[in-house]
Design goal:
alpha+beta, Alpha-Beta Plaits, 2 domains, 4-stranded antiparallel beta sheet, two-stranded antiparallel ribbon, 18% strand, flat, metal-binding, HMA_dom_sf, HMA domain-containing protein, HMA_dom
Length: 164
């Protein structure tokens, strides 16, 4: 009877539909990468810290949660979508939250550029003006007069020795 059961499964329509559904489910299932998500959210007390931690702890595929009350920073490590984490924190806590906008001043190419200094930034951190175009100021724009002066003292200029 084993062979008859096998043939019955082959010619049974429900078997093929089930196999097709399983293949579609595997294609739809996205494999996410391990990500570190940093969020800035204002926390004043231990109750706020606990509420923020619990809002993210219950999410699926979150492996680690760190809360730094002094810097108002939440760090989430896991296989999750950053937008969903931010939305979840805003919804569960009722507080304004945003992605961490600061970088250590050691790795920013222009830490003293206009717009990079922020009074609310933690010590040793500045706003990244390269990726934040609204705060870039005059960093990326060089007018024609500045370009001429830079070129006059450049090594590419053959007559630079005459000027000096």
């Amino acid at each position: 009877m084993g062979a008859l059961d096998h043939f019955y499964e082959i010619f049974d329509l429900s078997y093929w539909l089930r196999v097709r559904r399983q293949k579609k489910a595997l294609k739809k299932k996205k494999l996410r990468q391990l990500q570190t998500i940093e969020i800035r959210i204002k926390m004043d007390c231990e109750g706020c810290e606990r509420r923020v931690r619990q809002s993210v702890d219950t999410m699926k595929r979150v492996t680690k949660v760190e809360v730094n009350t002094k810097q108002h920073k939440l760090t989430v490590i896991g296989y999750v979508d950053p937008e969903k984490v931010l939305k979840r924190v805003k919804a569960k806590t009722g507080k304004a939250a945003q992605f961490w906008p600061y970088l250590p001043y050691d790795i920013v190419p222009h830490p003293y550029a206009p717009g990079s200094y922020d009074k609310k930034a933690p010590s040793g951190h500045v706003r990244n003006v390269v990726t934040d175009p609204s705060k870039a100021g005059d960093l990326a724009r060089v007018n024609s007069m500045e370009a001429r002066i830079i070129f006059a003292f450049s090594e590419d200029n053959a007559h630079a020795c005459v000027i000096m």
